[in-house]
Each structure stands twice: as structure tokens, then as C-alpha cells.
TrEMBL record:
A Gene Ontology BP annotation from the UniProt entry: cell wall organization
CC terms in the record's Gene Ontology section: Golgi membrane
Classification via Pfam families: GAUT_1, Glyco_transf_8
Main location: Golgi
Native source organism of the sequence: Vigna mungo
Presence of the UniProt keyword Ribonucleoprotein in the record: no
Pathway(s) the chain acts in: Glycan metabolism; pectin biosynthesis
UniProt GO MF annotations: polygalacturonate 4-alpha-galacturonosyltransferase activity
Stated name of the protein: Hexosyltransferase
Keywords attached to this entry: Cell wall biogenesis/degradation, Glycosyltransferase, Golgi apparatus, Transferase
Length: 575
């Protein structure tokens, strides 16, 4: 009896030893097929991939075309595409086919059937059967195509050299898929024909990958892990880009410490003055229509100083210049104090608070956009649509954005024939020039209220430096037209598209040399054009007074700011 028990123990111990030794023998045999360097790299990458807790194997999605034509509204009974489906489907058809709604958000109702043929224990024949079924296209088709390409490349790199003949089909499909996708990053980047072709090629690619999996099963796990690692790195890069974009926007919307300090210092000095000492000279000029009136709407002291100083420096007749600086009551003391201690020579500066306009508090429809973006909610940005109310005694006014610099005398602008139009502006519809805007990039022409009233090919133009004929404005009652668009719910499109609508067919296009844009976001603005321009504009996020300003253009602005001023030095403001 004891002999029987002894034999049983020996048998069990033999089985346990075999279960431990067999995997080691198998791995050793596989490693012997690799070079010493290859073995070391293989083990390092394998251990690193297995130790990463956050690495999850990505799901491979198998696609088939589910009645592709019916997705855009095919009428099987009448054998034609219905008018309703064309209107709904052809507006961004690629987005709708891929499960996106009109706002570009993922349609939560889209059925996504996922197949991870790389998962352990998954039967490859199941994936082959799923290929025969109709599975809807998911919203991340381009990304899934790239995932397939990554797996294919991993197989092509890892598979033994002797297997080249078996991999020819996979290599050919990879080249075709790369040519098809190209530089596309979103589903909407593919045309309808490319979407149709992609569906077919993805089925062939899936079948080819399945064949390779069966031929080289030992490569499969490694290929999947390499693909997972690549996906993780791509996600990290994407996250870093999003973070960088957020920080740039945050920097653009936040007042620098030095400018905040300057405002506080000037405000304290202003309230230390007696009331009679707070008045700026030549106030009798502000209502004289024969003078050249320039308006600036801003809450930034340095920005206002640069606009006024550059205009005066370039003018031939400084005594004719009248500057109207409109700001909020909080910033009025600082801006007023700046021009009290830095008088504009023979020119006139008048600083006014918008809080004195009682009618503005009633016409605040632009605040209903529920947006935190200052472009949509700032009263200063929308004051441009109330110029006749702000300047009832004037016939003409030039409106500057506070991020411009004047480099030439503007007298000729005041003598320009406006041909009965209300606004003079530089066009932005010339392709290849900066900026280039198409009106349909900002306005929805599928909306009948827009499509029936406006020409989709109309030339867009820019704010920043504009001449306004206030007499023609009053004659056409354009402020009421602007209010009508606000009541139609168009406040969220921004002030520029609202301007295109309000002044439609009332715009006189100026020569491009009057106003060069792009210095706040583009590094491709021609320096010769900048030097010849009458006005240059730092439109964009990278304003010249910010640390994120573009260095190559900053000197055009800083030369009009007196950095030797003791207030600027006290607040550590430097060029």
C-alpha cells in the first residue's frame, strides 16, 4: 500500500515539474531563433508592455457596409434619392454616416459592434463570420483604419524574413489604405467615394490580418501590445496639445501682472487729484464734425497708448485728430490718468465710460448667448453697432481695434468716396492671402433665413480699421437691422459675421495696403507688406503686450510705448 502511495506522489511531482519546465523550454526555443540583440530587445519590450498597468488592448472594430445608400435616404420603392434625405444627408454626409449629429458630437444611439480578434481565447472563425454581417460604421473610422495599419506594420516587422510571400497581400493592402487615408484626421476629411472605398478595403484588411494571425500566432500578442503602446503615446501627445492650446487661450484672456499693476498705480494717482485736475484738454473738439475722429473701445491702458501714439506719430496734421476712448467705469481712472501725464500733443483725447449709456443696458441681447468667451459677451466688442448713438454729432468716424498700430498718415482715408456705402473695410476673400475667410465658414447657408437673403460667394471683410459714414448708417437704420439679427438668435456667431450681415451690400472694399492682418497668429505675413501698410493688426490670441506675442512682429508695436515711463518701470513692464 505504501508503494502505491509513493508512486502516486512521484507521479504528481513529475506533472508539476513538467508544467514548470515546459514553458521555459518553449520560450528558450523561440529565443534561439532570434539574434542576441533581438532577444534582448524582445524581452525588454515584452516585460515593459506586461508591467504597464494602464495598458489595455485596443478593440479592433470590424466594418461592413450596411445598406450604404440607405444611409443617405434611398427610396427603394421609387428607386431614387428622396429630396428630404438629400437635404439632411448631404450637409456633412460623412459626419452623419459615421454617427455624428450636425454639431459634430458622437451620436450616442449609434450601434457599435466591436470585435477584438487579438484577444486571448477568441476564435478567429468568429471574426470571419462577423465579416458577413452588416455592422454600422462607427464614428471613429479614420482612427480604426490607422489602428489596422499599425497592426499590419507590426506584423510586417516582427514576422520572420522567410514569410515574405505570405505577407505580400497584407503589405499591398497597407499601401492602399495609407494612400486612401492620407493626412486625414477626422471622418469628415474623407469624401463619400473615399468612405465607400474605405469600407471595402477594411474588410479585406481584416481578412488578411486574420490569415496572418493563423500563420504566425506567436507574433499576435506582441503586435497587439506594440499597437497598444503606440496608441498610448499618441494619446499622450494629443493630451499635451490640448493642454498647450488651453494654456494659450488662458494667457490670452488673463491680464498680465504688469498691466494690472499699471492700472492700479494710475487709478490711485487719479483719485489723488482734485476733480478740476482730472479733465483732459481741448474737450470742445469732441463734437466738431470737420475734424478726424478716431474711436477705440478698450480696457487696456497700454493698448490705447500704442494706438494713440502711433496715429499721432504718423499724422501730418495732429491738431485735427480727436480720439474717443470708450471703456468700462472700472478702467476709466487709469486710462484718463495715463493721458493726463502723457498728453497727446496738439491732438485731443476724450475718455468716456460706457456705463453712462443708459440705452446700452436695455439693448443687451448679446449677453443671452450663455458663453464665457469675451468675443460673444463683451459690451466693448458690440459697441461698434451703436456708433450713431454714441456720436450723434458726427458724420464720419474711423473705428480702431485696440490691437492695431498706425504707420502712415490717414488723411486720404477721410477724403475717400464711399459711393453711398456705410462701411469701408479691407476684404479677406482673396485665397492665398492672410487672412482668408469664406462667408459660409461662419454662417449656416442651409438655414433659409440666411441662404435666401445673402450670396454665399459674397466677399468677407475685416474689422480692426474701418471708416463709417454715420449719415448713411442713419439713413438705412442699420442699428435696427442689427437688432433684428440678434432677435433671430444669431448673437452666438460673433461680432464679425454679424457685421457681414448688418452691412451686407453696404460695404466699400478698401485697398489691402490700408490694413494688414494676421500679426497675432500667423508667422507667414510678408514683412514687406507689413512695412508698407498704413495699419497693421495683431488680430488673434498672441497680442503684442503678452508674453506669448510673436517676437518677429513685436517691435512694430513696442516702439510706440514709452517704457522709460516711471509707472511702467515700477510695474516691471519691459519691451
Amino acid at each position: 500500500m505504501s508503494k502505491i502511495r509513493r508512486c502516486q506522489r512521484i507521479f504528481i511531482l513529475s506533472l508539476l515539474s513538467l508544467s514548470v519546465v515546459a514553458p521555459l523550454v518553449f520560450v528558450s526555443h523561440r529565443l534561439n531563433l532570434l539574434t542576441p540583440l533581438g532577444r534582448r530587445e524582445f524581452l525588454e519590450e515584452l516585460y515593459r508592455a506586461e508591467d504597464a498597468e494602464e495598458l489595455d488592448e485596443p478593440n479592433q472594430v470590424v466594418y461592413t457596409e450596411k445598406d450604404f445608400v440607405s444611409t443617405i435616404g434611398y427610396d427603394s420603392e421609387n428607386n431614387h434619392v428622396s429630396k428630404e434625405s438629400r437635404n439632411a444627408g448631404y450637409r456633412g454626409a460623412a459626419l452623419e454616416i459615421n454617427g455624428f449629429n450636425q454639431h459634430g458630437k458622437e451620436d450616442q444611439g449609434t450601434q457599435q459592434n466591436e470585435l477584438s480578434f487579438m484577444s486571448q481565447g477568441r476564435n478567429i472563425h468568429d471574426s470571419q463570420r462577423l465579416l458577413e454581417k452588416n455592422i454600422e460604421v462607427t464614428t471613429k473610422k479614420v482612427q480604426e483604419i490607422k489602428d489596422q495599419l499599425n497592426l499590419a506594420k507590426a506584423y510586417l516587422k516582427i514576422a520572420p524574413p522567410s514569410s515574405n510571400l505570405r505577407l505580400r497581400d497584407l503589405e499591398r493592402l497597407s499601401r492602399e489604405m495609407e494612400l486612401l487615408v492620407g493626412e486625414a484626421t477626422h471622418d469628415s476629411d474623407l469624401s463619400m467615394s473615399e468612405v465607400h472605398s474605405a469600407l471595402q478595403k477594411m474588410r479585406h484588411m481584416e481578412a488578411s490580418l486574420s490569415k496572418v494571425y493563423r500563420a504566425f500566432p506567436d507574433c499576435s500578442n506582441m503586435a497587439a501590445k506594440l499597437n497598444t503602446m503606440k496608441r498610448q503615446v499618441e494619446e499622450q501627445v494629443r493630451s499635451q496639445r490640448h493642454q498647450a492650446t488651453y494654456l494659450v487661450h488662458l494667457a490670452a484672456r488673463t491680464a498680465p501682472k504688469g498691466i494690472h499693476c499699471l492700472s492700479m498705480q494710475l487709478t490711485a494717482e487719479y483719485f489723488a487729484l482734485r476733480p478740476e485736475e482730472r479733465k483732459l484738454p481741448n474737450e470742445n473738439n469732441i463734437h466738431r464734425p470737420e475734424l478726424y475722429h478716431y474711436a477705440v473701445f478698450s480696457d487696456n491702458v497700454l493698448a490705447c497708448a500704442a494706438v494713440v501714439n502711433s496715429t499721432i506719430s504718423s499724422a501730418k496734421e495732429q491738431r485735427k485728430l480727436v480720439f474717443h476712448v470708450l471703456t468700462k467705469s472700472l478702467n476709466l481712472p487709469a486710462i484718463s490718468m495715463w493721458f493726463l501725464i502723457n498728453p497727446p500733443g496738439n491732438a485731443t483725447v476724450h475718455v468716456q465710460s460706457i456705463d453712462n449709456f443708459e440705452w446700452l443696458s436695455k439693448d443687451n441681447s448679446f449677453l443671452e448667448s450663455n458663453s464665457s468667451d469675451p468675443r460673444y459677451t463683451s459690451e466693448l466688442n458690440y459697441l461698434r453697432f451703436y456708433l450713431p448713438d454714441i456720436f450723434p454729432a458726427l458724420n464720419k468716424v474711423v473705428l480702431f481695434d485696440h490691437d492695431v498700430v498706425v504707420q502712415q498718415d490717414l488723411s486720404a482715408l477721410w477724403n475717400m468716396d464711399m459711393k453711398g456705402n456705410v462701411i469701408g473695410a479691407v476684404g479677406t476673400c482673396q485665397e492665398g492671402k492672410i487672412p482668408f475667410h469664406r462667408i459660409d465658414m461662419f454662417l449656416n447657408f442651409s438655414d433659409p433665413l440666411i441662404g435666401k437673403r445673402f450670396d454665399i460667394n459674397a466677399c468677407s471683410w475685416a474689422f480692426g480699421m474701418n471708416l463709417f459714414d454715420l449719415q448713411q448708417w442713419r439713413r438705412h437704420n442699420l442699428t435696427a437691422v442689427y437688432h433684428n439679427y440678434l432677435q433671430m438668435g444669431l448673437s452666438s456667431v460673433g461680432s464679425l459675421p454679424l457685421g457681414w450681415l448688418t452691412f451686407y451690400n453696404k460695404t466699400e472694399l478698401l485697398n489691402r495696403q490700408w490694413h494688414i492682418l494676421g500679426l497675432g497668429y500667423s508667422s507667414d505675413v510678408d514683412r514687406n507688406e507689413i512695412e508698407r501698410a498704413a495699419v497693421i493688426h495683431y488680430d488673434g490670441l498672441r497680442k503684442p503686450w503678452l508674453d506669448i506675442a510673436m517676437g518677429r512682429y513685436k517691435s512694430f508695436w513696442t516702439k510706440y510705448v514709452n517704457y522709460d515711463n516711471h509707472f511702467l518701470q515700477r510695474c516691471n513692464l519691459q519691451a
